[in-house]
Design a protein that fits this description.
Keywords: Decarboxylase, Flavoprotein, FMN, Ligase, Lyase, Magnesium, Metal-binding, Multifunctional enzyme. The protein is α/β, with parallel strands linked by helices. It has helices at residues 39-50, 78-86, 132-137, 156-167, 207-223; strands at 14-19, 24-27, 30-32, 54-59, 71-74, 94-97, 104-106, 126-128, 145-152, 171-176, 188-194, 199-206. Helices cover 25% and strands 27% of the residues. The strands form three sheets. It has an eight-stranded mixed sheet, with helices on both faces. The protein starts with 13 loop residues before the first strand and ends with a helix. It binds cytidine-5'-triphosphate and calcium ion.
């Protein structure tokens, strides 16, 4: 409900949001990807706009329509997503990494369609992709308040806490994707915000409603650091 949303909590703030999956090309017609729908990132973009922010939405391929008021950058690979994330980062106040970035990409991208050979087993060589949110969190100057997500199937809060520390984030939003009612492709989600000194749980709700609650919580935590 609109009345439960505090308008203007991000007035004048510049927010970058990554969303959706990335696609890592194998050849001109094939890629490695995942089932991310982009719903959470798009809902966060909408909520941040409603809270008064100017939003750059950096999105992998999804079927959603981006909010008209957002500046949208469509990307495919993790490397393209990183380049779009760093473009103008010195003006960014809050960086929210909601994308499901492919952890690895093929070492070689074939120039032509790979033909089926006689072998029964085909091996792919993969190389680790750059970590976008860790790169942003590690910036020496003009570093934005940096927020990541942690989708986990077990020991959710413990893994989220270790990701918060390892990536040098200000905040991580943990969700348990072992529950089929929430997470990845679902319309609902339930999350726990984890920072160095706080833990706030938001119960299951639509991604739209949850995004509004998240933006309110994020703005409150951010305002403690923004002086
Ligand atoms: N992330 C990123 N760039 C990557 C991988 C992840 O920006 N190359 C971001 C995601 O957008 C998310 C956070 O890092 O905000 C956590 O992603 P996750 O996949 O849970 O973490 P990983 O470090 O990749 O660990 P693992 O997949 O092994 O759990
Ligand atoms: Ca990952």
């Amino acid at each position: 409900a609109a009345e439960q949303f505090e308008h203007g909590v991000l007035n004048g703030k510049r927010v970058f949001i990554t969303a959706g999956p990335t696609r890592e090309a194998l050849d001109p017609v094939r890629y490695i990807s995942n089932h991310s729908s982009g719903k959470m990132g798009y809902a966060l973009a909408e909520a941040a706009l409603d809270a008064g922010a100017s939003v750059k939405l950096i999105s992998g391929p999804v079927t959603l329509t981006p909010p008209a008021r957002a500046e949208c950058v469509a990307v495919e690979s993790a490397e393209q997503m990183l380049a779009a994330a760093l473009d103008g980062i010195d003006c960014c106040d809050l960086f929210i990494a909601a994308a499901a970035v492919a952890d690895y990409r093929p070492v070689d991208v074939a120039e032509h369609k790979i033909k089926k050979g006689s072998e029964e087993i085909m091996e792919l060589r993969l190389v680790k992709n750059p970590d976008i949110v860790a790169t942003v969190a590690g910036l020496a100057e003009m570093r934005p308040y940096t927020i990541g997500f942690a989708a986990e199937t077990r020991d959710v809060i413990d893994y989220a806490r270790s990701k918060l520390a390892r990536k040098g984030l200000d905040l991580i939003i943990a969700n348990d994707v072992s529950n089929p009612d929430i997470g990845f492709n679902s319309d609902d989600n339930a999350v726990t915000l984890v920072s160095a000194d706080a833990e706030v749980s938001l119960p299951q709700a639509s991604k739209r409603r949850l995004a509004r609650q998240l933006i309110t919580q994020i703005a409150a935590l951010y305002s403690r650091t923004d002086s």
